[in-house]
Amino acid sequence: MDVTEDRHELKPEVNLDDSQDTDEPAFEWMRTSTASTSAAHRADGERGGSEEPGSGPESSHEAKAANGAPEPVSAASTPSLREQSPTSALQVRPPEDQVRRRTEQREAAAKAKPVAPRVLQVLMAIFLPFLLLIGAVRAVATPAFLWLEYFRPGFPGDGYGFSVDDRLTYGSYALDYLANFAGRRYLGDLQLPSGSPLFTDGEVGHMADVKFVFLTAYAAGAVLLAFFVVVYFVLRKRRGAFGRGLFAGAIVTFVLVLGLAVFAIMGWQTFFTDFHRLFFANGTWTFQLSDTLIRLFPAQFWMDSAIVIGVLVLVVSSLTIIFAWPTKRKSEAADAELAADDQE
Fold first, then answer.
1. What is the 3-state secondary structure (H, E, C) of the chain?
2. Which is the most buried residue in 90, 220, 290, 293, by most CB within 10 A?
3. Quick one: pLDDT at residue 4?
4. Does the structure show a pLDDT above 50 at 1?
5. Cα–Cα nearest to 148, from 265, 261, 290, 308
6. pLDDT of 173-184, one tens digit each?
7. pLDDT at 94 over 50
8. CA–CA distance, 186 with 180 (Å, rounded to integer)
9. How far is it, in rounded angstroms, from Cα 55 to Cα 61?
10. Beta carbons within 10 angstroms of residue 221's beta carbon
């Protein structure tokens, strides 16, 4: 028996398709590769019949197959796979008009000023008049101002028997009551040397209403003061921003106080009446000339208080306008600092 013929008969077939699905491969490139491999095997078989057994490259392939070694795959027989780069779409330049429009939008966003500082400046302009008015009222509603009034030349005396010392003592009780947290007994239990109550029930009730208005105003003033402190720390990194807010608020305050002063001068009685009607119910703030509140705080006292409050507010607002005036040098420095911040 020929050894060469036995070797051809026992040659194992190499099957690299584990799925046993060579007829319908999953990918197109597998079909091409399989077809080329089958054609190569048929060509090798034809050449094997004419060549001498055991010679040529076929013998080496058969020996490797018999030993179980896999047959190397030639790089030329494997088709190269080229997929489109996932970032190739990013390399496409958009149209020129779209590029120009996006560039203009970026430049406009870079030059646009933040909205928050402007909103804070508007709020400062609105709140500053109330803060200055509340502060001026608190400065007037003190025993020190009462002493200046009673000892000022030309201040009307009491026609019912109160001396200056009596007025200063009893008036100080009334002003202290407006700033403390005591109840109505603080004034209701006060008595004259004759033993009669110093204030009637109607007077004590009105002072309680005044106290509520004063304490509410003081609380609002504290909140506004805290607001300005917070705004200062928020705007301090922007040169001149806080000053511009104060400047706008001082202008508004100056104009508002001037308008109220003109209205008061044209008709003090109307101004005084409308002011009380705004905060108190009708019939709770009118008294007789012999009542203690009228004897301690006559009409001249309220006129002088309004004048002092107006002068204090005008002085403070005028000083604020002078020191916070937006000069050219301040504007240039603020613009330079803002440009430096944008570059950073």
1. CCHHHHHHHCCCCCCCCCCCCCCCCCCHHHHHHHHHHHHHHHHHHHHHHHCCCCCCHHHHHHHHHHCCCCCCCCCCCCCCCCCCCCCHHHHCCCCHHHHHHHHHHHHHHHHCCCHHHHHHHHHHHHHHHHHHHHHHHHHHCCHHHHHHHHCCCCCCCCCCCCCHHHHHHHHHHHHHHHHCCCCCHHHHCCECCCCCECCCHHHHHHHHHHHHHHHHHHHHHHHHHHHHHHHHHHHCCCCCHHHHHHHHHHHHHHHHHHHHHHHHHHCHHHHHHHHHHHHCCCCCCCCCCCCHHHHHCCHHHHHHHHHHHHHHHHHHHHHHHHHCCCCHHHHHHHHHHHHHHHHC
2. 293
3. 47
4. no
5. 308
6. 999 999 999 999
7. yes
8. 10
9. 11
10. 18
Scored b (16 or more CB within 10 A) or e, 265-294 reads eeeeeebeeeebeeeeeeeebeeeeeebbb
Give CA–CA dist 324/244, Å, rounded. 7
Say which residue, 276 or 109, is predicted with more confidence. Answer: 276
Most confident of 1-15, 62-76, 172-186: 172-186
Neighbours of 141 (CB within 10 A): 19
Q: Which two tokens stand for residue 321?
A: 């306008």
312: tokens are 């204090």
Q: Are 117 and 243 in contact (CB under 8 A)?
A: no
Cα distance between residue 173 and residue 209, in whole Å:
16
The packing angle between helices 143-150 and 164-179, to 10°, is: 160
Taking a C-beta distance cutoff of 8 angstroms, is the pair 175, 141 a contact? yes
